[in-house]
Amino acid sequence: MKFFKLSALALASTLALAGCGDDNNNNSSGNSTNTPDVPVKPPVDNSLSEIEQAKEMIRTAKLFVSDNKAVTDAYEDVSDILTEKQDTRLGYTFDIPSDLKYYMEKNNVSQLTATDIIALANDKEFETALGNIVLTPEKDFLATLNTDGKFTLTGSTNIDIEEYDYVYNPQTGLYGPVVVNQDSFKAAFDGFEDALSSKTSTDNFNGSLGFKSINIGTGTDIVALNSSTKGATVSGQFSDKVVVNDEFDINDANREGITLEKAVIKLSSLKLTANDSVIEAKDFEFAALDVSRKLADNSLVVRTIPYKFAITGKMTKQKPMTDVEITLNATANDADIKKFIIIDEVGDIEEAANKYVGMEIVLAIKGKVTKENTTTIPLDFQANLKRTARNVIELQGLTASVEGKKLFVTGKSSLDNNYDVVSTQFTVEQNKASIKLNVDANGDFIKDKMGKLGDIMVNGKDYGDLMDNDGKVTAKFTDDSLIIL
């Protein structure tokens, strides 16, 4: 189903990465109550002298950089939660519900039991629907399809797969099929329900997709998924009535003059357990809406604009030991999109002159990870971005805790008319110490002809310079001491 095809992803991605605000002092970002507030500058430690405050800020920054590198090195392959075999099995397992549903719709079948499936073993149409999957279901295996298109699946089955590739045979001079992958594994479905399509005509569609659990494989190869029967919900408000079935295509609806006024996808919780890792996604929300314009040739151009992406993710892992929670919320002002995003005469998207779309982005990371030498690194990081003018993005506050000491960073980026960053200024602070840094359009720090990046200040007094000489960054203090970063 092509319900939520994003025809304007490029612009949306630009706005989402940049962060946006609005023209009329509307501070509503649509953030959920789980989203952290803008961080504030930590309290001052007055027990340190001014020169020690200057050095402490640089030491903390050095630790932050070194810890970040250690974590990056240790977690270079951390996204490889599943083995290649597990990943392939996962894909085939989720093919089964859609393949069975397709067969049942085509043949007007409301129920398939284990006995039915075994009896269809040599049925060409059933074989075509399943592709290179062969099912050997257990007695509890049952698929149902009601008159409105809701599909359910429960029970266990053995799955045999064969993947072929066409390989050239030099002896015959022909290409022929060769088995490149064979596998046999068990999958167990509990409470799987697909209600993402309907035969009812409506301008306010509501659907859902979910399951209580799906277990794939056995023993050390098992992949376990846990959620709820209506774990993911989908709602769509249209300008006119549509039938959102498996053949529904939003582009076809657009050609008939029907637009998507609002679409929201929500996921309450989904947990994946495999090998030594547990990943949980919760409070996921994605929202989008259409903007449209009739061109001179009387054709209707429609663009779908995402305006919200929010998720809280948690990962625990044994090696390297990990317990981390990440919160991300990027929310644009949907009212601004309707008012300020326009389609020009050739069908391209642009912001109205002297206007801009409001958006805020929050990223927070908390937890602990380990270096290769098993040293524990506590993580406590948060950044808040907001677009405060058409060509300005502000880093309203970034806090990073390192060994109990906090850095506080604010900043501002300037954009050109293509929404590319042309310059950025940062102010790094700790206690009463601070340093201002400038970054060019290429993301490189700007230095003067002597290699100075910035002055290390405390209470308005200069206590040293941060220098970059041929890539070697050093803090030089007024007492002639050095800290090499």
Keywords:
alpha+beta, 485 residues, 7 helices, two-stranded antiparallel sheet, disordered N terminus
Question: What is the helical fraction, as a range of percent?
Answer: 10-25%
Number of E-state strands:
25
Number of helices: 7
Average pLDDT over all residues: 87
User: Taking strands numbered 1, 2, ... along the chain, how are they ordered across the largest sheet?
Assistant: 5-6-9-10-8-7
Q: Which parts are unreliable, with pLDDT below 50 for 5 consecutive residues or more? A: 1-33
Distance between the ends? 53 Å
How big a fraction of the residues is strand? over 45%
Gyration radius, in Å: 28 Å
Pairing-aware structural class of the strands and helices? alpha+beta
General shape? globular
* Biggest sheet overview: 6 strands, antiparallel, barrel
Brief summary:
The chain has 485 residues and is α+β, with helices and mostly antiparallel strands.
Describe this structure in words.
The protein has 485 residues and is of the alpha+beta class. 17% of the residues lie in helices and 50% in strands. The chain has helices at 9-18, 50-74, 84-106, 114-119, 124-130, 250-255, 334-340, and strands at 111-113, 133-137, 142-145, 151-169, 174-195, 201-210, 213-216, 223-226, 232-243, 260-274, 277-294, 300-317, 322-332, 341-343, 349-351, 359-370, 376-389, 392-402, 405-415, 421-430, 433-439, 452-458, 461-469, 472-477, 482-484. Strands 5-6-9-10-8-7 form a six-stranded antiparallel beta barrel. It has a two-stranded antiparallel sheet with strand order 14-15. A hairpin with a 2-residue loop joins strand 22 and strand 23. The longest helix is centred in the first third of the chain and has 25 residues, at 50-74. It is globular, with a radius of gyration of 28 Å.
